[in-house]
Request: fold
Amino acid sequence: MFAHLDTHARRIEGGGTPDHVWQSWPGLSELPVIDAAELVPPGARAVIVAPHPDDEILACGGLLQLLAAQGSALLLVAATDGDASHPGSPLWPPERLRQVRPQESAQALHALGLAPPDWLRLHLPDGGVAGMTPELSAALAAQLRPGDRVFTTWRLDGHPDHEACGWACASACSASGATLVEMPVWGWHWATPGDTRLPWHRARRLCLSAAQLQRKRDALRCFASQMQGDPSTGQPPIVAGDALQRLLHAWEVYFL
Ligand SMILES: [Zn+2]
Reply:
């Protein structure tokens, strides 16, 4: 999966670090705990910038529930429509993915128990966000205001689109006075416990209840295009097995 992606040494290939390896590492459960009200204080707005439809749930499907419960204003930004997830697939041509993947995101939000949020869709090229970083940064800066808490994928996550969203958000936040929080998604794949390439000193752990974790699991089932194999090409699911389990822990990790 993603064997073609190689961002310097942060390789997304093979099955990645098995989830049981992460689960059995005490360093994870020793990360300092943070709560939703610290991540998004009362009165602040949360802006979630997702490189692809599904990243908003994989990275922060637990936080989204907690933010809804505490009444935080929310803006979701979809950088791409995720239409490059199935290259050469007769079953999932780009035009179908462009329609279906945003619908899957909306269904997943509903499964989390959220009302339909404000959604800004930028329709950037899937796989090509790195070439659009100035445009993304400008589009975000036009939306952001001081006090916003912006959540996006980590600048060194390993997937080029994820990294580009991280850099664009960092730039837009510094221009607008918003605060950036980064989230690892593919980092769990190529990194290993205690890996010095991860900024553990910035990492905080948001604990999820069993019910919140179950709703996150239910929400992820809405992404059928990503969670099911493709019989037309014989390709396995894009997100399954360890790739899914690594993001279904009883906590989510945020880099402050
Ligand atoms: Zn992604």
